[in-house]
Every structure is written in C-alpha cells, then in structure tokens.
C-alpha cells in the first residue's frame, strides 16, 4: 500500500483523522492571526466606522433597536460579537427592554432555545428579547417595495418598524453571492419566502457573474444590496474569521462603504498570496476531498458547495 500520512479534516464537531497516501497534496487555508483584543476591536470599529457616524451617536434618542445576528448555519461567534455592540447602545441610553436580537434564519428552521443559548450565551438570552425570523408568517413581514429586477421585497416587520437597525455577520467569498455579509443579512437573512426564492432562483444562481468574490453586476449581490437599501441598517458590523473562528478583521459602518471595503481588502491581501495555495502541477487529480469546517454550521447540506471556497 505504501507509506501514508495522517491528516485531520475539519469535519463534524471534533474533526476527523484520516490516513492518506504520502503523495497526496494537502492545501490549507491561508492563515490570518486572531485579533489580540476582539472586544476592543469591535467597540473601536463602531466608534470609528466607515462612512457613518459612531454607533453611540446614531443610537442617542432612539427608542426601539433591532440587532440582527446570524443563525446556527453560520460560524459566527455571536456571543463574542454582540456584547461590545450592545454596550454602545446602552451607553447611548437604550435599556435591554428596548433592544430585540433578531435571528436571521432566512429560509432555515428556527433555532431552538438550547441552540440560541449556545449561540448567544445564557446571559444575553436572559437579558434580551430574542426572536427567530419567520419567512413564512405574512403577519410578521412588511412589504417595502420592489427591487430593480422587479422582485417583491418582504422584510421582517420588527426590523422595518425599529428606529435603530444594526446588522451583524461574517464575511467570506460566497459561491454565488460574491461575498457574505453586507446586504445578505437582509436578503436572505430576514426576508420573506417569496423574496428569497426569487433571489435564489436557478437563472440568477446560474448567471456568469454569480461567482466567488464578484459583486457589482452579480444579480444576486445587486438585489441583496437593493433590498437592504429600501430599509437600510444604520450600521453593519461584519467580521472576518480564521480557521479557529477567531476574529481577524472588523468592518463596521454604512451598508455600502463598509461592505465594499471587504472586497478591496480581499483583493489586496488574499489576491497577493494566491500562489501560496495553488496546487503544484497542472495534471488533473483523481480524487479531491474538501472539508467545509467543524461545528453545527457545517451540517447544512445547502452549504456543501462552500467547501470549494478560496
């Protein structure tokens, strides 16, 4: 059989050890070190945002805030991401009873109380009202207009009726939306079923510009952003993560300027290092095994193509 080597794949809850032939080529993700002070970096990003006033200034005088967070299918460390944001809201005069944490489930199932506690931590679950978005409940949705492509845009009513809106999430190249984060927190995150299904139809996913890292001219990205513009967040707070789910970068500010900074950063930092992850040689491979990641988010079947992400 020849010599082999042990490889650990990011799979399941604890990873999977496998034996591969010694000749197998192993490609690891580009590593970025975690921030030494995640809490401080998030707080600082909301105080010196990109293209918007500081969050504390935006929140002064507001009475009803909604903070949108990612559901269990995304590897976002919500329990570490949300507290610095909530502290800024409290410093502006908002009490816990004035803040709703809205779980951006899209068309996914609602997360259970136990799952919400594992995602947010027991302290946040006890202190704040936590709501699962429901894309099928028409009473919980509000029609806010049409996209330039003619789609009906239905969004979560609590988000629409709030007088302060903050969206959070993580950013990575997305295999048909260009990049995650930004407008994806709104569509599909808190959109109605009819809106999501139109946005994710076969024609748009099959568009030649619906690809990794492509934003403008990508019909899915363009509609996500157009939907978000109809009822824009006052601030987005998006993070980049490494393989260990440590926060490596924070992008906070206006929907468009902060999210556009993501693409510019990707082109500058990752594009310059592409040779480090290029497979040696041009010959076809007989078998390619891709690991998507560890944790509950990796169990979503629809996310399997993301194992091919750069």
Short description:
It is built from ten helices and twelve strands. By secondary structure, the chain is an alpha/beta fold. The protein has two domains: 1-27 and 290-310, no CATH class; 33-278, 3-Layer(aba) Sandwich (Rossmann fold).
Tell me what the structure shows.
The protein is of the alpha/beta class and 310 residues long. It has 2 domains: 1-27 and 290-310, no CATH class; 33-278, Rossmann fold. Helix 1 crosses helix 3. The protein contains 10 helices and 12 strands. A 6-stranded mixed sheet has the order 5-4-3-8-11-12, sandwiched between helices. A hairpin with a 6-residue loop joins strand 1 and strand 2. It is globular, with a radius of gyration of 20 Å.
Notable characteristics:
about 300 residues; 12 strands; alpha/beta; 10 helices; 2 domains; single chain; Rossmann fold; six-stranded mixed sheet; two-stranded antiparallel sheet
Lay out the secondary structure.
Layout: E1 4-9, E2 16-21, H1 38-47, H2 55-59, E3 65-70, H3 78-91, E4 99-104, H4 113-120, H5 122-127, E5 129-132, E6 141-146, E7 152-156, H6 157-161, E8 164-170, E9 173-174, E10 178-179, H7 193-199, H8 202-205, H9 219-230, E11 235-241, E12 247-253, H10 255-269
Parallel strand pairs: 3-4, 3-8, 4-5, 8-11
Antiparallel strand pairs: 1-2, 6-7, 9-10, 11-12
């Amino acid at each position: 059989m020849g010599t082999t080597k042990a490889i650990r794949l990011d799979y399941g809850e604890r990873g999977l050890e496998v034996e591969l032939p010694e000749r197998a080529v192993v490609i690891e993700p580009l590593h970025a070190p975690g921030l030494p002070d995640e809490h401080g970096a998030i707080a600082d990003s909301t105080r010196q945002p990109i293209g918007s006033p500081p969050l504390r200034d935006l929140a002064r005088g507001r009475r009803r805030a909604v903070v949108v967070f990612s559901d269990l299918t995304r590897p976002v460390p919500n329990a570490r991401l949300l507290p610095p944001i909530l502290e800024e809201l409290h410093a502006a005069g908002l009490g816990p009873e004035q803040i709703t944490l809205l779980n951006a489930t899209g068309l996914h199932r609602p997360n259970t109380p136990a799952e919400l506690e594992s995602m947010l931590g027991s302290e946040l679950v006890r202190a704040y009202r936590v709501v699962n978005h429901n894309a099928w409940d028409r009473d919980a949705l509000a029609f806010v207009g049409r996209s330039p492509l003619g789609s009906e845009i239905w969004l979560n009513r609590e988000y629409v009726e709030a007088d302060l809106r903050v969206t959070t999430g993580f950013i990575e190249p997305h295999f048909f939306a260009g990049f995650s984060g930004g407008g994806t927190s709104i569509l599909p995150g808190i959109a109605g079923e009819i809106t999501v299904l139109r946005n994710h139809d076969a024609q748009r996913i099959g568009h030649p510009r619906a690809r990794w890292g492509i934003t403008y001219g990508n019909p899915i990205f363009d509609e996500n952003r157009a939907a978000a513009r109809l009822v824009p967040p006052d601030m987005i707070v998006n993070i980049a993560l490494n393989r260990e789910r440590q926060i490596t970068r924070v992008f906070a500010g206006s929907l468009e300027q902060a999210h556009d900074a993501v693409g510019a950063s990707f082109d500058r930092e990752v594009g310059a290092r592409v040779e480090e992850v290029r497979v040696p040689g041009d010959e076809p491979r007989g078998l390619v095994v891709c690991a998507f990641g560890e944790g509950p988010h990796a169990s979503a079947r629809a996310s399997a193509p993301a194992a091919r992400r750069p």
